[in-house]
Amino acid sequence: DVQLQASGGGLVQAGGSLRLSCVVTTLAFDDYTIAWFRQAPGKEREGVGCIRCGNHNTYYVDSVKGRFTMSSDNAEATVYLQMDSLKPEDTAIYYCAAAESISLPTPRLWFKSSNPGRRFPYWGQGTLVTVSS
Predict the structure, then answer these.
(1) Mean pLDDT confidence for 77-81
(2) What are the Cα distances from residue 95, in Å, to 7, 55, 76?
(3) Which of 3, 33, 46, 51 is spaced 20 to 30 A from 75 at the CA atom?
(4) How many CB atoms lie within 10 A of CB 64?
(5) Cα separation, 72 vs 133, whole angstroms
């Protein structure tokens, strides 16, 4: 069984930074792809980025590329999402999710498609990020 615990959300002004954390409880942390998703009010859930993702160490959607950075502390089984240069449109509930890496094809084929989260069976609770203008 895999459990995820996300934290680190909050209120920040545009241009500011936040770091989200996702603690993953599993005996095989290295075997899992960890992804961050977000859902803004009235919008569909979308992928943000993933780590150990197909043939990519990290992979990001275009809207966050260059501003968001994922990293992993394997000793602590924790994945981080460093968010810099935040914009009001980044306001959303952010979720981390896990899937066995072997089950996922290269992310360019699916991560930006509709409902990429359907490939992830394990989810943490969300953490709210609010960016004020």
Answers:
(1) 97
(2) 9, 22, 19
(3) 46
(4) 22
(5) 30
Residue 108 DSSP symbol: G
66, 59 in Cβ contact below 8 A?
no
The 3 state secondary structure assigned to 7-41 is: ECCEEEECCCCEEEEEEEECCCHHHEEEEEEEECC
Q: Which residue has the tokens 């934290």?
A: 7
| Average confidence (pLDDT) over 45-66 | 94
Window from 30-39, 44-53, 89-98, 99-108 with minimum mean pLDDT: 99-108
Residue 129 makes CB contacts below 8 A (sequence gap 6+) with 9, 10, 12, 18, 20, 38, 83, 86, 90, 91, 92, 93, 94
Residues 30-40 as b/e (b if ≥16 CB within 10 A, e otherwise) read eebbbbbbbee
- CA torsion 118→40→19→113, rounded to 10°? 40
Identify residue 1 by its one-letter amino acid code.
D
